[in-house]
């Protein structure tokens, strides 16, 4: 802010450090959604077994969110491999994107607790939709401002099209929330298909 | 401490790493203020909807604190782009600044729970005031000690003046806490105006 | 994902940053398993002493998990010292490995609470088994794809054999869980012996 | 472990990353000890004021632990500025040191809750004693193994003596815990005096 005029020089090193830090923490905080039962001294082996079996859906949600976050990190990783400069606008698009990324542990715990309700599914899918939109915006803005090096015009346009993939999947999942809430997240398994259609 | 005599050489690399780490964590911990309701097995869709609607003020506080912290990170980012050396004093100013930065998740949760009380607003605004003061001190001290490179005298003085912006906004917000507690944070939206006045 | 075609170039810098971040957080979250007792104002010195003495097994579990995680970090550290390139497959093997690494604070708290039950021991040991397997896979895949530099054929094969060490220890520990649950983790002290047998 | 034979080459980059990560998290977790009171809808301004006034000792403990951790980070920062190589032993001394560093948020919350008891004070001071000892060991071992560059023999010996400073302060604080538990931590303010005596 205060130094707004001297940032044409901006390099991307510290943005990447912040991104990596926030992802590392968001990924690790997902585990906090797995709470161990209250300490009752006389907990038998069978009780622990039952508890662990009941934990399977939560472990699935944990793994799903971990992989989804890793996909977004991966995409950013590849974007900033190509983006060589940044400015204030690009930084703030990235910050808003991170704001929704850091919300994922909360959305995940909401799904873990109330995954069968439509409201929780819509919230979770809107969260992913916004992450997808801002992730796409990072690339779109960076290419428009010529912050990219060594990439052909066709490649850049193709990648811009591929960036629609995750928002489209999220929109379908939001639609699915109105019909079969408990299974809306299955939509994301259709991503390879969406990818093929976009490319066609 | 023990190695106090050999730090004229000090480079700023690891200070920046610590700063980025603390910001990444503080930003991600903000989400812990969004607690999901107790697990009652028979939670209906409408109950989850009501809960999520009731969560809107907390989501707003989350976004506000996220953006404010990002602004401070951004300012530090630009300061250390220019600061080429450091010494013990600069390091400790930065540590005290981080001490108040790391307090923001707590201040935010206080605002989330009791944002309508004057006490919570004063606490939150004093926290931001102290962050603003120490952020300004980092730049003031670094310029005074000639740790800066490639920046004109006028530019440095102008930036020192701009660093008053956030403390002034925080002081106005503290004043506003005595009149309309619940809306004191709106003051920060006046920052662009304060910026123009300082520059005039 | 979206950028899948342009990743032959992949360097390993940001993977290492993510790995280091997740380990730093997982290591530090282990301490959250040490909960202080509820605040009862009249807590006497003797009550605090009793509480701290009762905490000894939890401190032992904390130290054990800290050291085990540090061993895995160490192994990764040395692997990526040698691995000079990466591709999508290697990245995703590493992500799945991290998924199980980030689960360790939970497994540890399960052991802290119910370490005498067979179920908790099996869960903990399976977690370590999976970490060991994916850690070995990272090296196996990287060597198969020739992502390694300056290491002799014999050395690579020897290291592949040594990577079986931790999975074998974990399998023995799983076996031991059926006989003497509370002491299954002692198995890991036999690792130097397993190492010698593999090398023979 | 598995790669034990190929680590003569070891550089210190990733050790420093892990150290910085753990400190950033431990510093930020300290704030979790400041818990906001239960949400009672009718919380008045005076109740929040009373709560915040009652929080002053906890804020003091927060600041004290923040500064103590920053001192240890600072010392490590300066040590590794000089240490140019590492081996397995140095790495594991650092890991054990980090194990006690990561324990500080817990010790601090113990002090926050039961700072007037002797048991809590002894636990807190022993924690600092162990951090001090392992911090000194890092330097002692690195100098003994000639991992240091560009530092005179006299300087190295002087620094080894100065590393006794924190353990001595911790030992005095442990002694003080038996006499005036609630004020044992004041001992650390005597560090500048101890420093002068050691140097004499």
TrEMBL record, chains A, B, C, D:
InterPro entries per UniProt: TMEM175-like
Keywords recorded for this protein, A-Z: Ion channel, Ion transport, Membrane, Potassium, Potassium channel, Potassium transport, Transmembrane, Transmembrane helix, Transport
Topology with respect to the bilayer: Multi-pass membrane protein
GO molecular function, a single term: potassium channel activity
Listed transmembrane segments: 21-39, 59-77, 89-110, 122-143, 164-191
Location of this chain's protein in the cell: Membrane
Protein name: TMEM175 family protein
């Amino acid at each position: 802010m205060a130094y707004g005029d001297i940032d044409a020089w901006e390099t991307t090193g510290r943005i990447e450090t912040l991104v990596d830090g926030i992802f590392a923490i968001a990924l690790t905080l997902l585990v906090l959604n797995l709470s161990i039962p209250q300490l009752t001294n006389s907990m038998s082996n069978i009780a622990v077994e039952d508890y662990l079996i009941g934990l399977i859906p939560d472990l699935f949600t944990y793994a799903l969110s971990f992989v989804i976050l890793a996909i977004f990190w991966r995409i950013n990783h590849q974007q900033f491999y190509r983006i060589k400069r940044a400015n204030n606008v690009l930084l703030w698009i990235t910050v808003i994107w991170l704001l929704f990324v850091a919300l994922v542990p909360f959305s995940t715990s909401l799904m873990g607790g109330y995954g069968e309700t439509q409201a929780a599914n819509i919230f979770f899918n809107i969260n992913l939709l916004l992450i997808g939109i801002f992730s796409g915006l990072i690339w779109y803005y960076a290419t428009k401002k010529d912050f990219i090096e060594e990439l052909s015009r066709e490649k850049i346009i193709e990648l811009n099209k591929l960036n629609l993939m995750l928002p489209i999947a999220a929109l379908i999942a939001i639609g699915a929330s109105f019909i079969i809430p408990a299974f809306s997240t299955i939509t994301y398994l259709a991503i390879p298909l969406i990818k093929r259609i976009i490319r066609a």
